[in-house]
Amino acid sequence: MLPQTAQLPAIQAGQQVTVRVPATSANLGPGYDSLGLALTLHDTLTVESLDSDELVFELSGEGADSLPRDASHLVVRAMNAAFGRLGYRHTGLKITAENVAPHGRGLGSSASAVVAAVTAANALLPAGEQQDRNWILQLTSELEGHPDNVAPAIYGGLALSWQDSDQYSSTCATVDAAVVPIVAVPDFELSTEAARALLPASIGHHAAAMNSGRAALLIHALTQKPEFLLAGTEDFLHQSYRAEAMRPSAALIRALRAAGHAAVVSGAGPTVLVLANGEAEAAAVLEFIASFTEANTPDINWRVMKLAVDVEGAKVGVHRR
User: Fold this and answer.
1) What is the pLDDT of residue 321?
2) Is 56 in the same domain as 129?
3) Domain containing residue 292: CATH number
4) Structure pTM?
5) Exposed e or buried b for every residue in 257-277, given b needs 16+ CB within 10 A?
6) What angle do CA 278, 284, 290 make, to 5 degrees?
7) What span, in angstroms and rounded, lies between the C-alpha atoms of 100 and 75?
8) Judgement on whether residues 83 and 144 belong to the same structural domain of the protein
């Protein structure tokens, strides 16, 4: 039996909701905890409300061999949090998760799961009582602890996010069509918590000033002038401190940047994100990564993908009785 508050009204049984959510890359170099980009790598969550008091959980793809299929799963916990905040309960659920984005690699897998779950719970409510995407941003940011991954997962595109006290805000910018995201995903994981633990409690004023200038330049580069991507992605806040925990990724980033390509750590890592300026550079980046990894990290299996910027964010399909 799933934890419920019996006095709350129950959602209607027999409804089915499907939510498709993009993977995301946060930070993008200097935009620590504030910038995030939605990528065309999608997880799909289908939820059916049951009239029986049970939880059926079907899981395929990434994490299928290790993730739980019970009420302890992040999707179920996020859905229960959303139902409670919305003032509803459910009798039972059938959840089908198709995971494509790698887990523990810095591509926002937990944020995607939380956004999918909260969006699905909201869509199961009567139409007149559903909340808007800003409400979803508030709850998912609260559950994740920060908005940099959930915002692009919700809205798509390039999300610029900030926090005032307990209020989360985000606005989206259109990425220049020439920008081509490429990810190199190694076969080892790094938890966000472990990566954050490596950061110092404070940094110097000079580093902060340098970083703010690069973050401003990065937004200009991503939206209007991709020729400034290399300079705009230089970071002074977090990447150097995390390098020790992901030496193969750090070496690849150094080599790519030395060759003139805008490479950064994706989120907390260890995935490497490259923001190429046009298809010609993207082809050169793919060739460079293949050559470098074969010569320098032959014991690591890298999954390299040329993607695009997802401009839609979380998409919902609802089928009611």
Assistant:
1) 52
2) yes
3) 3.30.70.890
4) 0.94
5) beeebbbbbbbbbbbbbbbbb
6) 135
7) 15
8) yes
